[in-house]
Amino acid sequence: MLFCMLIALLNGLVIGASRAINGQLSGNAGPLQASLWNHAVGFLLLCLLLALNGWPHAALATIPLGAYLGGFYGALFVAVNSFVFNRLGAMKAALLVIGGQMLFAVVLDWQHQQTAPGVLRCAGVAVILLGMYLSKTTVASGATASPSTRDANQVENVV
Amino acid sequence: MLRQFKDGLLAIGGGALLALMIDSNSQLAMATSPVFSSWLAHGVGALVALMVLSLATGLRGGSASRGAQPGHSPLWFYLGGIPGAFTVLLAAVAVNGRLSLAGAIALMMVGQVVFGLVSDHFGLLRVPLRRVGSRDLLVVLCVLSGSVMVIFGGAR
Q1: What does the alpha-carbon distance between residue A87 and residue B7 come to, in Å, rounded to a whole number?
Q2: pLDDT (tens digit, 9 = 90+) per residue, B38-92?
Q3: Is the Cβ of A153 closer than 8 Å to some Cβ of chain B?
Q4: Among the residues of B97-133, which ranges form H helices?
Q5: Are B138 and A116 in contact (CB under 8 A)?
Q6: Is the pLDDT of residue A88 over 70?
Q7: For residue A99, what are the CA distances in angstroms to B5, B9, B17?
Q8: In A114-145, which residue ranges form alpha helices assigned H by DSSP?
Q9: What is the DSSP string of A82-121?
Q10: How far apart are the CA of B114 and the nearest CA of chain A, in angstroms?
């Protein structure tokens, strides 16, 4: 149990690292290039993993089209995420993406299950929206607080 | 300030795309296997990114990297797809254990936010330094606790 918890936490760190690296490439080459390299390199690695894991025994033609669209959303997601990563910072980008993901997941579940979300879920949505509102005001105060940006510039000069 | 507000909305829209992506990929993973689903999604994603990139390059007459500051990119800038591909395996290991899917997702979110906090604060992986304030921690608390409520309040 503890091992699985550590793996799940580690996975979050790995996701963060992947987004930070894509953000760096996006800063130099643009978000679409970052998305292209992310998917092409990942695809090559997964070719190897698929060779080890084996081709699945499934009738691929009977699977609904929607199940094949993940790569389409993913290509757009990596481009959008790489773009905002450089402008918002790692933490704020991660928080807003998680928030948007949760809110939209509630809508998707609602649509799939045809039942309205329960009380706890609605309360969770309200708390996420509060967090987003607070982050908006942090952004505003961050724009006027120069010391942090000055520090960042100094560090960039040193590097 | 308006620019940052727009960036924030874009990030939230990115989260919606991510939810759609996971919805599709998990349907495919259930019908086939997690590795196959991720392999196919990366292949399709590479093609879509290539098409959009060439479309954008064509429209802008040769330079698609608007807003980018051309500079030297070390090799590791191109390798974000490697940790990206490994997340599939790690997620499969975490979910296959006794941890519920909801618990695994919650812990992964905590890991992402911790990574964001630490890399902003210390400039890991050349992320620009951004000092983390008490208001930021309040935002972290709201988004994470709200997400946990959404995850565990679900019927699934």
Answers
A1: 7
A2: 999 999 999 999 999 999 988 876 555 555 566 778 999 999 999 999 888 888 7
A3: no
A4: 101-122
A5: no
A6: yes
A7: 15, 11, 12
A8: 119-144
A9: HHHHHHH-HHHHHHHHHHHHHHHHHHHHHHHH-S---HHH
A10: 7
Please state the domain extents for chain B.
2-65+74-153
B55 touches chain A (CB under 8 A): no
Q: What is the pLDDT of residue A140?
A: 45
- Residues A16, A94: contact at Cβ < 8 Å? yes
Cβ separation of A50 and B39 shorter than 8 Å? Answer: yes
B contacts of A113 (beta carbons < 8 Å): 155-156
8 A C-beta contact, residue B15 and residue A76: no
Least confident piece of the model among A91-95, B13-17, B31-35, B66-70: B66-70
Interface of B with A in 57-76 (CB under 8 A): 64-73, 76
Q: What is the pLDDT of residues B120-156, one digit of tens each?
A: 988 888 888 888 888 889 999 999 999 999 888 875 4
Which chain B residues have a beta carbon less than 8 Å from that of A35? 45, 49
